[in-house]
Amino acid sequence: MSPPHFGVKNKFGDTGFIIVVRYGLVEIAEIILQIDITFLMTRDSEDQIPLVIAMNQNNREMVSLLHSKIKIEELDACTQMDIFIGSIASDFYDIASEHFKFKPSLAWTRSKNGDTAVHVLARKSPATISSKRKLNSFKSIMHTGFKKFYRKDTMSTVAHQLVVGIAEALRNFTTNEFLELINIPTRILHDAARAGNINFIIIFLNEFPTLLSELDDRGNSIFHVAVKNRQEETFSYLFEWGGSKDILVKLYNKDNDSLLHLAAKLPAPQHLNRVSGAVLQMQRELIWFKAVEKAMVASPYEARHSTLSLSRIKVEEPPSHSGNGQPPPPKCLTPRELFSKEHGEVLKNAKERMKSMAQTCMPAALLVAAGVFAAIFMLPGAFCATVILVYHKEKTHLLLIFLGVLTIPIVSVFCFIWKDVAGILHNLWWDRSFLMPCRKRMCRSYTC
């Protein structure tokens, strides 16, 4: 196929050069561009240029080739915006930083869907943006032989510098311009809190501290969003604000939920399933509830949803057969009552799982213990007439004795696990059983 044919579109609207870029054929792409550089600006069926396509494919070599052929100053505004947003979306922050330095207004120019680069950065995962502006010199030395890890750390550092540069540039905005930028189409700090992008939040709050009190349309602060989405680092950042946090922890949203009510609610499956198994999920949820409870200054621990609330948490009760047959009025729940109601199924599964584990492990532990002790006392020729161990100097026999002694604490641990499960099944104070760390259970088992 001759180079001109690479500009012909197929039935899907893609040219031959676009297909070459999609498949990452760097050498062929370089040959084509040497003959006709205009292929750089051809667009696919989704109106994307080859450079953005290569970024989406995360093909670093192809991206480097295509970007080296592009002259930023010769691009139109739409193409500049596509490259800038595409580089941020695909974590090519070195390219994004270069374009931002050339034209800072790219950071607040809106794309076709109304987003800006600031919104895209806010929705990034927590590990995307480094906590420091410069790469640690020790890390630089350690990563010299590991390009993949070095590049990842470098990109996160450049991302931090990019966010700082954008935040500093936004100082020149008027109040109305700034609020319009950060609140439309979505609120950037709430997006960052939802994603757990704590370093983005820290950078922007350092530049604009008043954003801490910004609420979304439902009256949620960024910490309400963090608790709802179980973002630990974002919630922990609350404690660094001293007296300001006293106001935030007492805040109720329009659904009349406090931070503690949100912690009491069952999170979305993607947040609950960060740990596997009902036991660990229940323990994690209880730790969250206790942490938020501790953060409440004047704790509304037993505060119920206000009767003036338009949206209340209701307890479903069977219909009454007396009077007019209507069910009794809904009850408002305290955070603990709400936690019990929302996590009932998880608690049930956790109890069943612990009981199943104990039932499985106990017979195995007892069989091992019985077998080892029997091997010690019934080994042929183990004793002579003077009741002295004949094989007391043999290593294999000493190993059996050691294993016999070792089974004592093992059986003790399994017995204690069984005891704990029984306590959970019959104990109304359910949270203590799940909150106790495993190491404490094991240590305490040696004394039982």
Care to describe what's here?
The protein is built from 23 helices and no strands. It has 448 residues and is an all-alpha fold. Among the domains are: 1-70, Alpha Horseshoe (Serine Threonine Protein Phosphatase 5, Tetratricopeptide repeat); 379-432, no CATH class. The longest helix has 34 residues, at 344-377. The chain starts with 15 loop residues before the first helix and ends with a helix. 28% of the residues are buried.
Main features:
Serine Threonine Protein Phosphatase 5, Tetratricopeptide repeat; 448 residues; mainly alpha; disordered C terminus; 23 helices
Distance between the termini: 81 Å
Overall outline: extended
Taking the sheet with the most strands, its summary is:
none
Query: N-to-C SSE series?
Result: HHHHHHHHHHHHHHHHHHHHHHH
Low-confidence stretches: 298-302, 306-331, 424-430, 441-448
Number of helices: 23
CATH topology grouping of the domain at 1-70: Serine Threonine Protein Phosphatase 5, Tetratricopeptide repeat
Give the C-level CATH assignment of the domain at 1-70: Mainly Alpha
Approximate helicity band: 55-70%
What is the CATH superfamily label of the domain at 1-70? Ankyrin repeat-containing domain
Percent of residues in β-strands: under 5%
CATH level-two architecture of the domain at 1-70: Alpha Horseshoe
Q: pLDDT average, as an integer?
A: 76
Radius of gyration: 31 Å
Count all strands and give the number: 0
Structural class: mainly alpha
